[in-house]
Design brief:
By secondary structure, this protein is mainly α. The chain has seven helices and no strands. The chain has two domains: about 110 residues, Substrate Binding Domain Of Dnak, Chain:A, Domain 2; about 80 residues, Substrate Binding Domain Of Dnak, Chain:A, Domain 2 (Up-down Bundle).
């Protein structure tokens, strides 16, 4: 088994994926923790979807997932301890919200998938889990590619959304889409056509998020002007 697998950037080894250490310098441990954090956020997104169905969606989840996705983009964060802490926090938040979801009158299937039930408290447990939930855990190459394209697109949306959020501009619809798209990749019977539709929708939300960030920047700092220096 490879020490890691990361195909996130255009500089990836042999144009297929870094499997020993990232060309960027990312360690296998960090790469695997990033995969595990994505997995935890998929479960968290699914639980929050359930809560939303009965009017109890969590703003804390919105911010956690936005920040967590941003943490995993290329060269953003290589701090293994920070990822360990973030994974633990995500599991704790998920489990706390599951208790609330039990009281929802709607049917919530948050106990039907490992991403909503698995837990860990030690580095050893997390490292073992990370090795079996990464990108290559999806056997069908086409489904895997579409899921990964969707996740990478959501990461880009999260980065723009966080910059806008820091300027106090928020669109809840963007948060909802990121979580819906993440949770959808847990489905065992997701078709290529369904995934392709989500990828196209992700492009639409990417444009929507860039428009939000543009509004945040121009409203805060003004429109760019030619300036003599």
């Amino acid at each position: 088994m490879n020490a890691m697998f990361c195909s996130q950037c255009q500089e990836t080894a042999q144009n297929t994926g870094c499997v020993v250490r990232g060309v960027c310098g990312k360690s296998p441990e960090v790469a695997n923790y990033q995969d595990l954090l994505i997995y935890v956020m998929k479960g968290l997104a699914k639980v929050n979807q359930c809560l939303r169905s009965c009017g109890k969606g969590s703003d804390q989840v919105d911010l956690f997932i936005m920040n967590g996705l941003f943490m995993t983009i290329t060269n953003a964060n290589f701090d293994k301890k920070r990822f360990f802490q973030e994974i633990k926090a995500g599991l704790a938040l998920r489990d706390a919200l599951k208790k609330e979801a039990v009281n929802c009158k709607t049917s919530c299937d948050f106990l039907s998938h490992d991403a909503m039930t698995w837990t860990a408290s030690t580095e050893e447990e997390m490292e073992a889990k990370a090795k079996i939930v990464g990108i290559l855990s999806t056997p069908d190459e086409d489904i895997r590619a579409l899921r990964q394209l969707l996740v990478l697109g959501i990461k880009g949306i999260a980065a723009y959304a966080e910059h806008a959020y820091n300027l106090k501009y928020v669109d809840k619809d963007i948060f909802d889409f990121m979580q819906m798209a993440l949770a959808s990749t847990l489905s065992s019977n997701q078709s290529k056509d369904e995934l392709l539709g989500l990828v196209m929708k992700c492009g639409e939300y990417g444009v929507k998020t860039m428009a939000l960030l543009d509004k945040a920047n121009t409203s805060t700092y003004g429109n760019p002007e030619i300036t003599k220096v």
